[in-house]
Amino acid sequence: MDIAALRDARPGELYGAADAYDRLHTAFQEHTSNWKRGTADRVHQSQWTGEAATGATASIDGTTGKLQAAGIELGLIGAVLRDGAEAFELARAKLLQALADARAKDLGVNDRGDVGWEPLDPRSRHDPDAAGYERTQKAAAQDIGDRITLALREAAEADRTTAERLRRCTGNATSQAGLDLATAGGDSAAAVLGGRDPLYTKGLPPDGATPTQVNAWWRGLTADEQQRLITAHPEQLGNRDGLPAAVRDQANRKVLDDAFDRLGAKSPRTGTRRSATSGPAPSSCASSRTTPSPPTRAPTTRGTTCWATGTRARAAPCSPSATRTAPPTSRSTSPA
């Protein structure tokens, strides 16, 4: 995963694919129900006996089991895509916010992730404020570099994990292992257990984040991403200091309504009876293949020398890059 791939990605398109799989799953479930009512149940209720009846009943029950298993497997794919899209979107938001902060601080970022700043004019090097400027820019560059590294790491993990889950689903389909109820049931159980720590949680502010950090993270999300979190994961927002009061209020109201959903009870807030519903959990069963958006026009670059810090110090030229967010730099920090 590199800066250009994450910056230009369009993970939101995965939600459309997830919705399409959910619709396919619903249609398949209806097909299975029709088969059971129209064929399996009628045979069982026919009082047909004998050797032929025993063989036919066993065959029909086997088909019913395969249909039910396939339905379970199919129902997991939408959740896999949705979880991966959420994680990728949050990682991308972190990257875009880091690049925006770099621009605001007159820092440059190249396609390798080196972060640096414009050198002082030679006549200004003996200015009393010169040393302070260098220290400030170096600290800011290190912070931006660390944030870029974290965003790329989270995006790579989301991509790798989603791909592994989808490969499992595909493997079960091609090998027909997914037509076995025991296998499908195991995948479903793994999905529920895996749902305790879904991918998207890695894109949330860490425990111990300050209200200022939480607020900056929230402002770095698009309006669609914000609303999606409120709708899908309100329990992650209602108790976070740093979020706008209106957001926390909306999230807490959603948590309350969802609780009544699960109970099938009447909501005291809305006065309406709500049916118990639940969606599939992320599966253990993708590559987030995306279409790059047109890159933004970047300033031209000039050859300068960078100090790259990391496991080893090295001197290197700051190469031109479409990902540069500020003028070329004289000293830089590189993500690990």
UniProtKB/TrEMBL annotation:
Signal peptide: none annotated. Residues 36-58, 110-133, 258-336 are annotated as: Disordered. Residues 269-278 have a biased composition (Polar residues). Residues 280-291, 298-336 have a biased composition (Low complexity). SUPFAM superfamilies: PE/PPE dimer-like (SSF140459). Residues 110-129 have a biased composition (Basic and acidic residues). This is Uncharacterized protein. It comes from Kitasatospora indigofera.
